[in-house]
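Re: the 687-residue chain
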Amino acid sequence: MTLILDCIRAHGASNPARTALDDGAGTTLRYDMLASRIDGCASGLLDQFEPGTPAALQLDHGIESTTLELAMLEAGIPVLSLPLFFSAGQADHAIAACGAEPVPNCAPRTTARRRKAAPSPPLLPLGTARITFTSGSTGAPKGVCLSARHMIEVAGAVVDTLGHEHAGRHLALLPPGILLETVAGLFATMIAGGTYVCPPQAAVGLENAFRPDFAKMLRAIADLRITSLILVPEYLAGLVAAMEHAGVRLPQLTLVAVGGARTPPETIARARSLGLPVRQGYGLTECASVVSLEDTADGVAGSVGRPLPHLSVGIAADGEILIDGPLFLGTIGEPREPGPLATGDIGRIDDDGKLWIEGRKSNLIVTGYGRNISPEWLEAELLAQPGVAQAMVYGDGLPAPEALLVPARPDSDLAAAVAGANAGLPEYARIARWREAAHFMPSNGRLTANGRLRRKEIAAAYLDPVPDFFTELEAATVRERLAFLAVPQLQAGLNGAITRQAYVDYLTQAFHHVSHTVPLMCAARARLGHRPELLAALDDYIAEEEGHEEWVLADIAVAGGDAEAARHSAPHPATRAMVDHAYRQIEHGNPVSFFGMVYVLESVSVALAHNGAGAVAQSLGLPKEAFTYLNSHGALDQHHMAFFAKLVNGFDDPADREAVIRMARDMFRLFGGVFGAIELEREHVLA
C-alpha cells in the first residue's frame, strides 16, 4: 500500500463526509469511497496486465480518470502518461518505445483474460511507476522513468513546504498527463486531504485549439470556489489579463503556483496587485517535477524560492545548476548514471538561499561583439509589453539580438513594444531587428506542453534559412486571425453559449457558402489549365467537397430547423459578400488566390469542429447527428492542412504568394462578418 492510499484511508476515517474528488458538474466522491474504488480498480488492473508492462493513459480530466491514475500507482503498474495534445504519431512513438498497452477496463473481473506480453521493448529501470516523455529541446524526446516513492516524496515535500492550510479545493488546469499537475496537484492534494476538482478541459476554457478562453477559465475558478491552482506562465498572464478586463477578483484563492518556464517579474507583480497569491517555482521531469518553490506569496518577484528539503542544489563554476538527492531512475533502456544532475539551466543562489533562474546553458547567445546574453532575459522584457503575446530572441554570432514576436491583439504596436523593452536594457542587449510570427503552439510543434519555446523547431521554421511559404502565410495573417477569433458570435459558439436558433442560423449561412465551394473550385480550375499540378489538387478537393451542402441541410433538420426553408432562403448580405469576392478574384484577378480562401476555411474548421461542436452539443443537448458537417469537415481538414501546406510551398511566383495572402486576409474579415451577422439573443422556439 502506498503512502497516498494510506492518507486517503486516514482522511476517510477521520472525516467520512470529506470530498476527495469533484468533477465540477455536481458529481463528487468522498475519501472513504475513493479508497474502496482504488482497491477494486487496482485489483482489476492486476488481472489485465503482465507484470512490468506499462499502461498507456491519454484521458481527459475527470473522476474516473483520476481514480484510474491512483489505482495504477497502487497496483504498481507503470503508467505511460500521454497528454491529449500528443499527435497520433507522437503517441505511437511513445507506446512503441516502452511497449505500453492501452487500459481496457479498470473494473475487477472474475474471469480475467491475460494480455499477451508486449514485444520485447527496451527494459524499464527497476521500480518504474511512471514514464513521462519530455518535450526535448534537441532530437527525439526521451521517456523519463520515475519511481512511485520518488513522486510521493516530492508531493509530500510540497505539502510540508506549503502547509496543510492550503488543502482546500485545488483545480486541475494543466493538461491531463502533465507530471507537474499529477505530482504537485493530485498527489499533494490527496496527501493533504483537500478536494481535487477535475472537470474536463473544455469546462475550464482549455479546449480551444487556437488559444485558451481565459474569460471562461476565470468564471470556472470563481464558480467552483477554487482555493489553489498550478499554472504555467502563459496561463497566469492570460488569467491576469482576464481579471483586469472584467474587474473580477478571486479572494478565495490562497495559492497560485506558477512554473514550467520563466515568469516575467512584471507578470507576477500584476498578478499580486490583483490579490493573486502567486508563488513561483522551478522543476524538472528528472526531479519528479518540483525542485524549489517560494514559501510566501510576497517575495521579490523573480526568485523561484528555496529548494525543497529533500534536495541539494548547487551552482557549477560556469553557472549551471546542479541537483543531487532523489532523482529519476533513468530513461527507457538507459539507467541513470550516478552523481548530481546537470540541469542545463543557468542560475544563482542568493544570500537568503533562494534560487534564481537566468537562462539555459544551451540557449546562451554570443553576439559578434563577444557579449554573452540569455535570451530568456530579453524575452521577459518583451513579454512585459502589453502588445506581445509570445517572443523568441536569437542572435548567436549576430551584431545584436533579434526577435520573433507574436502580437497579442490585432492592433498591437510591436515596434512600440520593442522600443519599450529596449528602454530598460543595456545597449549591447537591445533588440536590433524583429519579425512578426504566428503563434507558437504544442499543436504546431513550436511550444512544449508547459509553455516552453521549442527553439530548434521555431528556428527551423523561421530562420533556417528562410520561412517556407506556408509559414509566411501564417505569419502574414496572424492579426486577421486574431480579429476573426475575437468576433463575439464565434466566441459564443466555441464556448457553447448560443441558442439552438443561433446554431440553425449559422448552419443556414454555412449552407449558402458551402453550396459555392465546388463551383468556385471549378471556376479556379477553368482558369488554371496551364498549371497541371494545381489541376490535380483541385480535382482532389472537388471530389471530397461534393455534396457537403446536403450534410448541412441534414444537420439543420436534426437540430429542429426547416431544411427546405434554409435551402430556398436568400443568403445574408455578409455571406453573399464573401462568396462574391471569391468569384471576382478568381475570374478577374489571379485565380491562384482561391487557395487563400481554402486556407482560411480549413485552418479554422478544426477548432469549429472539435471545440464548437462539442460545446454546442453539450449546452443544447443536441445529438451528434446534428453536427455531421462540422465534425466530418474537421476530420477531413486535419489531413487537408498538411496537404495544403505541401501544395502552397510549391508556389515560387511572388505574385501567386501575394494573391494567396491578400485573399486570406480578406477572407478572415469576410468570414468574420458572416459570424457577426448571426443574432445571438433572438428567442425562437423551433418545431
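The domain at 364-466 is CATH 3.30.300.30 (GMP Synthetase; Chain A, domain 3).
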